[in-house]
Amino acid sequence: MPHLFKYKHISPTILELYWPPSIEESTLMEMMSMKTQIQGIWQQELLEVTMGYHCLSLRFKSTFQLQDILNELELLAEKSVHSDSSMNRKRWTIPVWYSGKDLDHVASYASMSTDEVISLHQSSHYLLYFYGFMPGFMYLGGLDQQLFVPRKKQPDPLIEKGAVAIGGKQTGIYPQNSPGGWHVIGKTPVPLFNVTSDPPIKPQPGDYITFKAVSAEHYQDIISLLKENNYQLDYEEI
């Protein structure tokens, strides 16, 4: 199949498609184009289509004819490469109070001051690839390599909802209380996953995330505005 690294027929109802194992924006755009086309063609036959960094997993409601699906996917793969993306993409700005319990450790590991860590962390634009691990947990690309810090050997039993953390080559936000092995450098007051909202998550794969440092006072102000339903995340169209 052109442009796809390989496919794997996992079960009579599951087919997985793989791209070369690199974390690239061009790969994400191609995969998202493929996902949209797949959902359009097999809307009635599919239970779900899920994404990873370089994998699409197609779960069908019933067994399917593999060769028929592959023949159609060959045509879709060609279109996904040569078509221009018509996605409405956004860049979201997420406020962060950089006061995390592991901020000093990250600074020490990176041989820089905490102010330098904060400045570097909020200077990048992070591409949202997909959600996983738990509902609302973003997998982001774009962390400056100077901030790469190995995950903790002993995970914390509890990382609080809203924690902004670094783990390995990634940074992310814990959308709910959870055990975790990432290093907490700050916290956002803004809930990013809400089952009562439509959609429950506003940033979508293909969007960018930026972090903006706020003071403790501003952090509390945002919490007050949220309680009054008078706060919205800032974003711009890109």
Molecular structure report:
- This protein is an alpha+beta fold.
- It has helices spanning 25-41, 66-82, 103-109, 114-121, 216-227, and strands at 6-11, 14-18, 46-51, 55-60, 90-96, 126-131, 138-141, 156-159, 163-167, 170-173, 178-180, 183-187, 208-213, 234-237.
- Helix 1 (25-41) packs across helix 2 (66-82).
- The protein is globular, with a radius of gyration of 20 Å.
- The two termini are 32 Å apart.
- The model has no long low-confidence stretch (mean pLDDT 90).
CATH top-level class of the largest domain: Mainly Beta
Q: Provide the structure class.
A: alpha+beta
Residues in helix, % = 25-40%
Poorly predicted runs of 5 or more residues? none
| Sheet with the most strands, sense and barrel status | 5 strands, mixed
- Strand/helix succession: EEHEEHEHHEEEEEEEEHE
Report mean pLDDT, rounded to a whole number. Answer: 90
CATH topology-level name of the largest domain = Cyclophilin
What strand line-up does the widest sheet have? 7-6-13-5-14
